[in-house]
Amino acid sequence: MGEDGGAQELASLAAAVHGGQRAAEEELVRRLTRPLRMMFRMRRVPAVQIDDLVQETLMIVLRRLRSEGLQDLEALQAFTEATAMNVMIGEFRKQSRRQELLDKHGEMLEPAPELPPEHVLTHHELTGAVRQSVSELKQARDQQLLREYYLNDIDKPQLCAQMSVSAAHFDRILFNARERLRALLSRRGVQELP
Predict the structure, then answer these.
(1) Closest by alpha carbon to 59, among 80, 37, 42?
(2) DSSP 8-state secondary structure symbol assigned to residue 20
């Protein structure tokens, strides 16, 4: 696991983590993540589980370093590897117990009840709700921007020139206008913008 940095560098990062340095935590996580992923891959852990196991391992290691630290800071690599193995074994045991319960009692489980169908707005209803919500926005600039950009298909560079704003400022204005529109639509029962 030590290919990304020597034991002494990891030890100094561990000491800094114990001292409460947030940047040291981020650097330690960066250095340990790749070797942990490789370790789990070598042990043939399914790819969909690797990120969760890495995250759980790192959380345990950081928790330990923040609270008690390690007596032998140069043993951080060994502690991390042992923690990873314990996390992996714990996950396999949990899956095994789940499978055993399903095998024994699976027939007793009832399927989840079917949920009532959601009310789906027609295109006409949705368009009407959007137009009405746009007209109810308090800022005229929001109304104009949303109409021009979404309903009249005027492109961003042209609108930036009309409004005399930079592209970045335009993005902020558009984001805020969309958020205000989303809140109004939410009150009408529309959860997602088209």
Answers:
(1) 80
(2) T
